[in-house]
Amino acid sequence: AAYPEEQPLRGEIEAEARDNVVRLMPHPSMVLWNGNNENLWGFRDWDWEPGLAGDSWGEGYYLGLLPRLVAELDPTRHYAAGSPWSGSWDHHPNDPDHGTYHSWEVWNRQDYAEYRANVPRFVAEFGWQAPPAMATLRRALPGEALAPDSPGMLHHQKAEDGNGKLNRGVARHFTLPEGDFDRWHYLTQVVQARAVAAGIEHWRSHWPTCAGTVVWQLNDCWPV
Predict the structure, then answer these.
(1) Partners of 110 in the beta sheet?
(2) Which one GO biological process term can you cite for this protein (predicted)?
(3) How many beta carbons lie within 10 A of that of residue 70, not counting itself?
(4) Are 62 and 69 in contact (CB under 8 A)?
(5) Does residue 133 sit in the same domain as residue 185?
C-alpha cells in the first residue's frame, strides 16, 4: 500500500516506529529491521505511479525516516529498506542478482521444477500452498462433506485461483483424482512437500551465491 508522507500521518508513523523498535529490540531472535514488504517492488511493477500522480507514497519512510530511527535506537542491527530490495534504484527491486528476492512465479504460474532456473542472492519469500492436516480440517469443519470446492474449504481458500493452482500443481506430476477428496488432499500435500524441498535443496547447493531462503510461511494459521 502507498502511505502519504505528510503530517499528521508522518508524526503518527514516527511515534509508532519508535515504540516498536524499543519494544522489539530486546528480542533474542531479532536479526534485521525491514522497512516494508513489497512496497518498493509494487511501486515499480504494479502500476502505482500513474494513480499516485506524483503524490508521496512511503519512499521517504523506507529510505529516510526508518533507517534514521533504527540507527538512533538500535544501532547494533542492520536495516533493510524493504523486501524485496536490491540496495538502490539502480537495480530492479526484485532483481535476483542483488539483495533480497521474492520467488512467486513458481506457485502462481510455473511448476516447482522452475525453482532451479535461477540462483538469487537471498530468497526472502517463497512457498507453495496445500490444505492443512486432515485432523485440522475435521476439527475446523465438523459435519461438512469435504471437497475442494465445499463451502468451508472455499471460505478458507484465500489465494487468488488457489484451487486452480493446487490442481495444476498436482496434474503436472500425478493423475488428478476426480471425486476422491482424501486422495486430492494427500497429493496436494505431497506436491507441497516436493516443491518446498526442491527450492531449498537447489538454493542451498549454491551457497555462498545464495545465502539463504525464507519459507512463507511456516507459522500460517488455519482456519482464518
Answers:
(1) 106
(2) glycoprotein catabolic process
(3) 21
(4) no
(5) yes
Neighbours of 41 (CB within 10 A): 20
| pTM exceeds 0.85 | yes
Residue 94 within a domain? no
pLDDT digits (tens, 9 = 90+) for 196-218: 999 999 999 999 999 999 999 88
Asked if residue 47 and residue 130 are part of one domain, the reply reads: no
Residues 6 or more apart in contact with residue 199 via CB below 8 angstroms: 103, 106, 112, 115, 123, 126, 213
Residue 91, domain member (yes or no): no
**Whether the Cβ atoms of residue 152 and residue 130 lie closer than 8 Å to each other:** no
User: Helix 9-24 to helix 66-73 angle, to the nearest 10 degrees?
Assistant: 40
Total of domains in the chain: 2
Find out whether 43 and 57 touch, Cβ atoms under 8 Å: yes
Using CA atoms, how far apart are residues 113 and 137, in angstroms rounded to an integer?
Answer: 29
Closest CA to 84 of 73, 76, 92: 92
What pLDDT is attached to residue 105? 97
